[in-house]
Each structure stands twice: as C-alpha cells, then as structure tokens.
Amino acid sequence: MFHHEEAMRERRRKWAEASAGKRVLVISGWIVIIAGILALVGIVVMLLWNRIMSGILGLPAFGFWESLGLFVLAKILFGGRGGSLMGKMRMRRVMRERMARRDEGEGENLD
Residue ranges per domain, the chain? Predict the structure, then answer.
C-alpha cells in the first residue's frame, strides 16, 4: 500500500467522525475561498481586457460578469491545468501498476 492511500483513508475517517457543525464550517470556508478566487480571476481578466484590448484594438470595455464569462469560455475552449480528472486517475493507476511490476522484478527497467 502506498503512503498517500493511507493518508487519504485517514482523512476520510476524520471527516466521517467530524461533527455536523465542523463539516458546515469547513464546507462554508471552501465556498468562500472558491468565490474569492473566482472574483479575483474575474477582476484580473476585466482589468487586462480593458487596459490592453480596449486600448490597442479599440474593442469595447468589459464588465465583471462579461470577463468572468470570457474566462470560462477560454477554459472550455483551451482547457487547462493538466488535463481531466479521469486522465489523472488513469495515470495514477498505470504508475501504481508499473511500480508494483518493477518491485516484483517483472516490469520494464525504468532507470
């Protein structure tokens, strides 16, 4: 068993044992953090668009919601952050299998 699997199991156990009030507090905290990050991204995209694109190309200025929509559209069209969750999970499984074969001495030489 890998160390990260033990750590994940321990985190799940602690979460299951946590009180309802603590769970609400943690989830609320994450919602606030995610909303803050989205607000910051929207403001940065808006400022960049309004300073650069409006000034250079004469395009109309964007508001906050338009810039957030532009960001979401760019993420959909161009992707980002290393691929999909399913791809990452598949890669982890493949690497685990390779390491298990290597430990058994039957896998390819990874050196």
Answer: 3-80, 83-111
